Amino acid sequence: MRRRQQRDPLHQKKSLSQVFLKVDWPVQRMVALLKELDVQRVIEIGPGGGVLTRAMVDAGMHVLAIEKDQRFAAHLQEQIELWESLSPGKLRVHNEDILRCDLQQFVEIAGAPCALVGNIPYHISSQIVQLAIENLSKLQVVVLMTQLEFAERVAAKPNSKDYGSLSVYAQLRSSVHLEYKVGRECFQPVPKVDSAVMTIRGRDEQLSTEVLTATEKLTRLAFSQRRKKLSNSLSTILPEGSDLNGAPVDLDRRADAIAPLDFVALVEWLSNHNP
What we know:
Layout: E1 20-21, H1 25-36, E2 41-45, H2 51-58, E3 62-66, H3 70-82, E4 91-94, H4 103-110, E5 115-119, H5 125-134, E6 141-147, H6 148-155, H7 165-173, E7 174-182, E8 187-188, E9 195-202, H8 209-224, H9 230-235, H10 260-273
Parallel strand pairs: 2-3, 2-5, 3-4, 5-6
Antiparallel strand pairs: 1-8, 6-9, 7-9
Helix pairs in contact: 1-2, 7-8, 8-10
């Protein structure tokens, strides 16, 4: 009988959307970006086999690696003793799910200021970006490699096909920049989409939680009826006969033509004129 080929114990799991870099330049470019941002301490999400982890450690950074997959967490733990460039305490590994943990606790362990970094799974990109944005006050910067289409949606500007409620949500709470693209051919297994690296930083001017919550409700409504004029969308939530004269934005426009801060202005105006 033909012997069954033994499977690599560190094979990627489709259920966790694990795709790993097979070329060096994206790793080196990300490390260069972190050095440019003067990052010295990192919380890394999903280090996998540790290619980026090793590069950051070699660049002198202290890394706290958070790995959900027990196999890779154990593998990284073994590497601590093997990496000759490692000084005591330079790398720490936690076998945890970043979405089920208290990020503040990891910030305290890593030491402030620290960056949140990772080549993150496509299927949980929204949750991780939301987690990052909610904790920006505790972080120096966020540097994530995500699906290109997702990064374009987060960073999109008005009057573009990618602009939507996610764009408004992110840009009212943070400063987002798409740094560079990484082709699908750089990964193994080769995914069906390209990736990109984006940075997320805190905004200089913070809006109140009340305003942000109200604006999020309005943008979700407006973009759920993307092809309708704003006036039509508003008619579904305002009392009949509401006076919309003097609104700070042109209500004959559609949601994808309204800038994030214009949505805020509209929310504040509605609050004052249609309590």
